[in-house]
Design brief:
The chain contains eleven helices and nine strands. By secondary structure, it is α+β, with helices and mostly antiparallel strands. The chain has two domains: about 80 residues, no CATH class; about 230 residues, BirA Bifunctional Protein, domain 2, CATH 3.30.930. Helix 1 packs antiparallel against helix 2. The two termini are about 70 Å apart. Bound molecules: 3,4-dihydroxyphenylalanine (DAH).
Length: about 325
């Protein structure tokens, strides 16, 4: 038994002590082996033998407990020393934060339109069916409602799927002419490398008297805007469909990654789709009771612009809150 006690006292770390504990007190440990001998002890001596063993066991347990306490205390002291923080040290007070690339991109877009006298309009993020769909020429059961994966609330309210409802709100609140943009967050049930359930759009709307606002106006301002954002690129208008505009177009720029030679980002087409636009559909004007007017509208995704401008490969990176990403934008 003496050398069992020594084994305990010799353990120089909690790990070592834990190994000794198994060797001594474990099911197949030294003490179990001692107790197993009990069956071979002659009857009259059994009691004394067992009492002796139990005393030894209790003694070893005491020794173990004392060693454990001592080692634990040493361990805590060692950790406290190693992890000590000098609270009297000054931190680097000059450390600067950074604006999030989505916000700097948003600001750059807004600056362009503000300089051209567009007003900035706002609307609620929890929208109703009328503003998000109906008034935008998306009647109930219209198949184009499937273009957007909507988050619904129980009482028919929705999280706005685009910033287009701000067009409706602005026209209902103001008389023409209108010259507005609406930047803000929008929501869709989507999650992959180019989609997140929340992202940002900038909507645009220009309304004047009949014949005052043309597709040519739209084309020239969109081209100029895209050159302002991306520099020397080709701009291409491609016929498309949106319920709230007719005719509608999607606008592409020549791929800024491969100089239009074809790469993974542009799916080897040489073109990158960057926004949607068109001439405001008469049904939209009817919904807000606007008469004898013409207009154009456009909408774009801010994260998409930010990804292209900063070569960010996965949209989700913008929302993970990893400061190592942000530090690159100081
Ligand atoms: N609301 C569209 C979307 O979320 C974007 C859009 C396209 C807005 C064309 C417009 C427009 O105002 O004319 O995909």
């Amino acid at each position: 038994m003496k050398n069992l006690e020594e084994q305990i006292r010799d353990a120089s770390s909690l790990d070592a002590l834990s190994r000794v504990r198994i060797e001594l007190f474990g099911k197949k440990g030294a003490l179990s082996k001692e107790f197993a001998k009990l069956k071979d002890v002659p009857g009259p001596e059994k009691k004394a033998f067992a009492e002796g063993l139990n005393r030894q066991k209790a003694h070893l347990q005491d020794v173990y407990d004392t060693c454990y306490e001592t080692l634990k205390k040493e361990e805590i002291e060692r950790l406290l020393k190693a992890q000590a923080i000098d609270v009297s040290l000054y931190s680097n007070l000059n450390e600067k934060g950074a604006l999030h690339p989505v916000m700097t991109t948003m600001d750059k877009i807004i600056d362009y339109f503000v300089a051209l006298n567009f007003s900035i309009e706002d609307g609620p993020k929890v929208e109703d069916d009328f503003h998000n769909f109906e008034a935008l020429n998306l009647p109930k059961n219209h198949p184009a409602r499937d273009m957007q994966d909507t988050f619904f609330f129980r009482d028919k309210a929705v999280l706005r799927t685009h910033t287009s409802p701000v067009q409706i709100r602005t026209m209902l609140a103001q008389k023409p002419p209108i010259r507005m943009i609406a930047p803000g967050a929008v929501f869709r049930k989507d999650y992959d490398i180019t989609h997140t359930p929340m992202f940002h759009q900038v909507e645009g709307l220009v309304v004047g008297e009949t014949g005052e606002v043309s597709f040519a106006n739209l084309k020239s301002i969109m081209s100029d805007f895209l050159h302002y954002m991306f520099g020397e690129v080709e701009v291409r208008f491609r016929p498309s469909f949106f319920p709230f505009t007719e005719p509608s177009a999607e606008v592409d720029i020549s791929c800024i990654f491969c100089k239009a030679e074809g790469c993974r980002v542009c799916s080897h087409t040489g073109w990158l789709e960057v926004l949607g636009c068109g001439i405001v559909d008469q049904n939209v004007f009817d919904a807000v009771n606007y008469k004898d007017v013409s207009g154009y509208a456009f909408g774009l995704g801010v994260e998409r612009f930010a990804m292209l401008l900063h070569k960010i490969p996965d949209l989700r990176m913008l929302f993970e809150g990893d400061t190592r990403l942000l530090e690159q934008f100081r």
